[in-house]
Amino acid sequence: MAKPSRGIDVLPKVGRATARVFSSDALNFVGELQRVSKPGRDLARQQRAERQQMFDKGGLPDFRPETAAIRAGSWKAAALPRDLADVRCGIVTAPARKDLLLALNSGARLCLADFADVLSPAWDSLIDAHLNLMDRWTSAMEHVDPANGRRISLSQRLATLMVQPRSLMADEPRVKCDGKPVASGLFDAGLYLFHTAKVALAKASAPYLQLADIASQAEARLWNDILLHAQSLLGLPAGTIRVHVRIDTLSAAFEIDEIIHELREHIAGVSCGGFSYGFDVVRSLGRHKTRISGDDGIADTALRDLLVRTAHHRGLTALAPLARADAKALGEQAVRSGFDGLWVSHPEHVAAAQKVFNDDMPTANQIYVSRDDVVVSQKDLVAVTGNTPSTASLADHIRASILVLDSWLSGGGSVTVDGAIEDRTSADFRRAQLWQWLHHGVKLDTGAKLTAALFDKVLIESLASLKSSNGRFKEAAALLKTMVSAPDLETDIFTQAWKKLA
């Protein structure tokens, strides 16, 4: 007879299929992680709010003098595990069954099953994702296409599986611990670790996570405490769970060394945030009239260089931001900058990215490239492009945001727009720029000031251009308008879309 879960409630009905995910022991495990992390999460949320208040008053982040010794020290992180030493191409995928199979079979070195950015948090999608991740390790996983009968099975050579949970700061209100919503990041990571950690070890791999949305050294310490507690509960030695960290917040850009130091027993690599970093820069500094980002987005060259230098100094690999289209060109740029690998968004991009790194990086990685030439200042990390926004970008931002929101509201995830992958991070960045342009009434390249009336006009035109009998475009457009017109930029647009799915 199954033991009852202690203080853990799952609000949606648990059927036969979901019972496999929600065993009492699995729920108790998530509950224990929730309880041990609650004080740290509460403090982190308070510190984030205080930091944003400082930004809104004109303040800027900077390197912390009290942690200078950590940045100057010669310490190293733990040695890399064998299957995370060569990461020349990683593929990001939704953990839907067909997508996950194609990504694992793609020939990439890493497969990132992403709960945060490319999977709608519709309840059925989340449960299906966990079942698929369990099946990766415990059964002959396969998918049969109902349209053509094509069968996809696991190949002999698979990419190393890594899972990216949602933010530790966000809530999953459909699962409650002691009457309060559990952290969405703990829901995702906890269930994956409980069901698969020991099986992965038995299969000559290990439980690997990528942690995103870390804003400070203190938040990295919180994650490290969670990992230590998870290992203890599972009876695993310290350091068994290994992680990559995606540097995707402005404040984290100034604390890369400190974040690595806190996670040094568990960390194996760092990734550059791309659109997610751009979004956080605009969200953090969006009220600064002198820091309005233009068509070229956010200047992140300084972050990329700093990321490579810091990772290599600490014995870690560094991966370049996600290539959404031209993997060859972006791979060439990345390998020349010293990156050890590149994330791609589709199996069709894997071969091009692999070839670039095979040609230019004959060793497993290039941690030996120290990038001692890199000197990055506060000014470099808070720079924005500042060029004039164009009417074309205004329309593109609105159209792409509607398409991604429509997909999420319909229980999907990422979409292809004009040949490039659009997902939560790109849509969030676009929405943040729209908010900033409208909030400050910027002048577009035509000389016209962006007003609410002009925004509405382009929104209506964009909506008219999107024709589908199944789409939820009107609902998506209304949500986008509400968020862009809001007095602040704090709320994540997908939190609002997600509430409609909860």
Task: Sum this structure up briefly.
The protein has 19 helices and 15 strands. It is an alpha/beta fold. The protein has 2 domains: 8-58 and 87-374, Alpha-Beta Barrel (TIM Barrel), CATH 3.20.20; 391-499, Malate Synthase G, Chain: A, Domain 4.
What descriptors fit this protein?
single chain; 502 residues; alpha/beta; TIM Barrel; Malate Synthase G, Chain: A, Domain 4; 2 domains; eight-stranded parallel sheet; three-stranded antiparallel sheet; 47% helix; 14% strand; globular
Compute the number of strand runs.
Answer: 15
Radius of gyration: 22 Å
- Overall 3D geometry? globular
Question: Which architecture name of the largest domain does CATH use?
Answer: Alpha-Beta Barrel
- The CATH homologous superfamily of the largest domain is named Malate synthase, domain 3
* Number of discrete domains: 2
Mean pLDDT over the full residue set: 93
Report the β-strand fraction as a percent range.
5-15%
Q: What does this protein look like?
A:
The strands form four sheets. This protein has an eight-stranded parallel β-sheet. It is 47% helix and 14% strand. With 502 residues, the chain is α/β, with parallel strands linked by helices. The chain has helices at 16-19, 24-56, 68-72, 97-104, 123-138, 184-202, 217-234, 250-253, 256-262, 275-285, 301-313, 327-337, 350-360, 378-381, 391-409, 424-440, 452-465, 473-485, 493-499; strands at residues 8-10, 89-93, 110-114, 142-144, 151-153, 160-164, 171-177, 180-183, 208-211, 242-247, 267-272, 317-323, 341-344, 415-417, 420-422. The chain folds into two domains: 8-58 and 87-374, Malate synthase, domain 3 (TIM Barrel); 391-499, Up-down Bundle (Malate Synthase G, Chain: A, Domain 4), CATH 1.20.1220.
